[in-house]
Design brief:
This protein is α+β, with helices and mostly antiparallel strands and 181 residues long. The chain has six helices and eight strands; from the N terminus they run H-H-E-H-H-E-E-E-H-E-E-E-E-H. The protein has helices spanning 2-10, 14-34, 49-56, 64-67, 102-111, 164-177; strands at 38-41, 72-76, 81-89, 98-99, 116-120, 128-132, 137-140, 145-147. The strands form two sheets. The protein has a five-stranded mixed sheet, covered by helices on one side. Strands 4-8-7 form a three-stranded antiparallel sheet, with no helix packed on it. Helix 2 packs antiparallel against helix 6. The longest helix is centred in the N-terminal third of the chain and has 21 residues, at 14-34. It is globular. It starts with a helix and ends with a helix.
């Protein structure tokens, strides 16, 4: 059975990755909304899925500023700020060795330097993590591994502390959804 899953993971498609990413994005969005934040879809893939597909397939010119738009716009009244959040999901990583593509990180830092990276790690202690894109502690620049273990999402979004039952429920849901991946 383990070989079937491993083979599947090696051959996963763009569509598969998109679904996994969308599930992670919805988990983060729901967590923030349930904890009192106003959250809005922001990234171009929320509105221009066909354009995303065309860029990915090389059928239209790739526009990094558009392609790297963060996923969510979060109104954080307690910080008197609006925060842009990029969400990534790493189903087989831990918080000490999470990763992001080097080109993606460089483009996020270039075009969206104040954005927050929210990382969904179903196999880790807190599941939901967040850090300013420019404060990531890079542990391996070749593969852009980073240690986000000291950055549970409530450090960036402190209202979450007032809703421990919501956090726990969504952590458990995330673990169940990604248990076999």
């Amino acid at each position: 059975m383990g070989n079937i899953i491993e083979d599947f993971l090696k051959e996963r498609s763009f569509a598969y990755d998109r679904v996994v990413g969308n599930v992670g994005k919805e988990l983060v969005r729901t967590l923030l909304e349930e904890c009192g934040y106003s959250v809005y879809p922001f990234g171009y893939e929320s509105y221009c899925t066909h354009v995303k597909d065309l860029m990915h397939k090389g059928k239209v010119r790739r526009i990094p500023q558009l392609q790297r738009m963060p996923d969510l716009l979060v109104v954080a009244e307690e910080m008197e700020d609006i925060v842009l959040v990029e969400v990534i999901v790493r189903t087989r990583k831990t918080a000490k060795v999470a990763d992001i593509g080097k080109q993606k990180l460089e483009e996020l830092r270039r075009y969206w330097p104040d954005s927050i990276l929210a990382v969904v790690l179903p196999k880790s202690e807190y599941v939901f993590y967040a850090e300013n894109i420019n404060k990531l502690e890079i542990t391996d620049p070749e593969f852009v591994n980073f240690d986000i273990s000291d950055s549970p999402i409530n450090k960036v979004f402190p209202k979450i502390d007032g809703y421990p039952e919501v956090l726990k429920e969504l952590q458990e849901l995330c673990r169940k959804l990604f248990a076999e991946i």
